[in-house]
Amino acid sequence: MRLVNLRFWIRACILVVASSTLFTFIVLLPCRTINTVDVRDLQISSQALPESQQHHTENIASNRINEYNNSPVRKKPRTGDSKSKNRNSVDTSNHQHLEDLIANIDQRPQSVRYKEIECLINGDYSIVGRREGSEVYLPFSFVSKYFEVEGSIASYDGYERFEWHHSNARIHKPVPYRHDGPFMSFAHYSVENRDRVKYFSGTEGVPISTQWDSQGYFYPIQIAQFGLSHYSKNLTEQDPNVLVVDNGEGEGSKWRAEDSASSTSVIYDSTRHSNVIEFKSQAGKPSYGHGVSVSINERSLPVLSFDLLMFRNSTITVVMQTEESGIVNLHYTSHIEECTHRGSNVFYGIGPAYKWRTITRDLITDLRKGMNYKEKQPKTKKKSRTTKILKIFLQGKGRIDNITLSSSNHMNQFFDAADWLVRHQDEKGGWPIMVNRNVDSDMDELKANWYSAMAQGQAISTLVRAYERTKIQGYLNSALRAIELYKVPSSEGGVQARFMDKYTWYEEYPTNPSSFVLNGFIYSLIGLYDLKSSTSQEEGREAARLFQDGMRSLKALLPMFDTGSGSIYDLRHVTLGKAPNLARWDYHATHISQLQLIATIDSDPLFQRTVDRWIGYIKGKRAKHN
């Protein structure tokens, strides 16, 4: 009898303990509003529960684990967690009291518990947020637009993180500046990829811009930047890979005649003092079936270069295979015409060449601009491009030499820009901008044929480097003539303005009233510095005087461009009495890069202090309040 009673009381105690444990787990824990137990830490023996309650408890645990795993707030695993450990498993050997678990809840990862809450923004409108206890969370899509910040979810190291960026500006490490060295951070520029570049002129080899006119025009600032970027890349990148297609020096012909009337021969050219390839075929429209061709089958060398003497009705055709459009033909014709596109054919008029000239074309750029074709870039440097160069055809009559394909040909492209600047400089020493420009509705419109100090400065920087590279006096003479417009008031067709009738300023936009654009002014100063550094003291005397006048103004007026949280693009808020024209983050980064350069050639601590402060603004720092 006593044995029966003892068994009865033991079973009763077990049932009471199990029921109490189950009640606490099912009822009490979910009711905790802030500090919720992590179900991964609940180690309850299933043998302590009746079978029906075991299934119920397992379902609750499974739901809690799913809720945790699907939560947008993920925690890193704590030190000591084993990757092979099954968090759903039941541990019967190390059971601990539920009270001990609850006592340590604050130290565990928390499940997400929130409720929606209306958030009233400045009393004007409302959005829906989420509340967790005393914390309120707003959608980042709202925060991003409201505070002009950026952020995204990133996954690496096996975890998700939210990465917040106050700006997308990139600041490159400064190096001591030299007038014959890389130009600022222009090695990172790609003028070819800009949407405002319509295409590259066949006759000039420089970009055609649509910045303020959709028809396209030669924009001297963009042309100078094209040249400076390639000059800088040539100094900072590794030597290119080069494939010599034909230079007239090899044995045997690489060219195949497509018809009986077409032929090639290697002859000696007395003007070049070397062998060249002479080609002949029937003149006519570019087509298969006639002319001469050479097979290429190359993916990784998209820059074509050759020396050419070509007469009328002649064409050089490059056959390319693309992933998007199949076979495409790039035709470089002896006609003078804009870039045109007909079906799978793109035409660039390079004009007749009655004298030897060097032509360099980025085939991928010509393809993309000609057909609005967007090639998928390789994910790694080792992976080949999707576009393949199949053949080169020669049709008509002419001579060609030094045909190469390369990964880049920066110096040829640099000299395309420098030579354009020499050929197109006018009698005033400038490069007029041939479109109307309306900078502000409260300023007079700039009529076509206006000059820009930024164009003058960047052109000088290009020409000085061409002179330093070749010692050809024509480049330096062109740069010296370019400073004349610095002396002419903007009201009289030049680029010089005066701030408060005291400080000299060289205007990017010679507006009325003056606009005092900061980045364009500093570019004009860099051009003057390059010129005075490349000439004798006597020859560069005027450039040095203009540079010193400008530096005096920069030191006096630079604080006016500081907002305490960013920089200002110009001073129209002073000259027009309107709201400041805040600089976008990319322009703010340009200001910093320019001042980093200035700090290497002028020891005034103002410049480095400003650089340090403005870099802080990029990361969200602000000036102190009163």
Describe this structure in words.
The protein has helices at residues 2-28, 51-69, 98-103, 140-147, 220-236, 363-371, 410-424, 453-470, 473-481, 518-534, 541-557, 572-575, 585-601, 605-618; strands spanning 115-121, 125-132, 135-137, 150-156, 159-165, 197-200, 207-209, 242-246, 256-257, 263-269, 274-280, 292-298, 303-310, 315-322, 326-333, 340-342, 345-349, 353-362, 388-395, 397-406, 496-499, 503-506. The protein is an alpha+beta fold. The strands form 6 sheets. Strands 9-12-19-14-15-17-16 form a 7-stranded mixed β-sheet, covered by helices on one side.
Low-confidence stretches: 21-65, 67-95, 374-384
Class inferred from helices and paired strands: alpha+beta
Give the terminus-to-terminus CA distance.
Answer: 89 Å
Enumerate the strands of the largest sheet in spatial order, edge to edge or round the barrel.
9-12-19-14-15-17-16
Average pLDDT metric: 85
Radius of gyration: 35 Å
Please summarize the sheet with the most strands.
Answer: 7 strands, mixed
Number of helices: 14
Main attributes?
626 residues; alpha+beta; six-stranded antiparallel β-sheet; seven-stranded mixed β-sheet; globular; 14 helices
Structure at a glance:
The protein has helices spanning 2-28, 51-69, 98-103, 140-147, 220-236, 363-371, 410-424, 453-470, 473-481, 518-534, 541-557, 572-575, 585-601, 605-618, and strands at 115-121, 125-132, 135-137, 150-156, 159-165, 197-200, 207-209, 242-246, 256-257, 263-269, 274-280, 292-298, 303-310, 315-322, 326-333, 340-342, 345-349, 353-362, 388-395, 397-406, 496-499, 503-506. By secondary structure, the protein is of the alpha+beta class.
